[in-house]
# Entry
Amino acid sequence: MIEALAGGLGAGDCERLVSGELIQPVNAWSSLAYSVVGIALMVSMRRASGPERAYGIVFGFLLVFTGVGSFVYHGPQQWGAGFLHDITFLSALWFLIIVDAGTVLGRRPGRIWFAAVVAVAVLSGVLLAAPGSTNVLTGGTVVVLVLSDLALRRVGSYDRRWYAAALVLFAAALIANGLGRTGSALCAPGSWFQLHALWHVLSAGALGAYFLATGSARVQEFGT
# Structure
């Protein structure tokens, strides 16, 4: 294949940009790890009930869309791919934040759903108005997610095994993402093994594990 012009979407994610249907094939296909985890999470919700089941199904759908958004971003890179990539991932994170915060504050599911819709609308507006704000938004979102997690742990207990898995996977994902940047000593643009692809797989697993870990706290608080 022929190398595409530098500076395209995903140029900072190490893998060589090439002409063809998929600009970064390894990073594109690995993006679907989010979708796989999302589908698995939705299937696992058959054993849940009440608000927790609905939360799991919606979060599963958000992960599926995150995979699609990332696939489009690294693959065909069609118009709007950058926005789709950013809004799907941020929406998934903010859904976790709102569900955690809603549980801590004792809000009923109806208000949590409303807050989630408002959050997505606000995020969309910010990304459309300032496309370059992605890194700031993501960093701020992670900080808020950590704070919501600390608050949630005060009102209910977690599943320790899933929580430990989430922490390990997330830590490994951050390392893979950092080492997989363009210009890194471990960056191999033409390799079929891409550390950014590993980030996709590990972070997808971390998000799924985190939702399962925190489910017990939400169930304890709402009694469902």
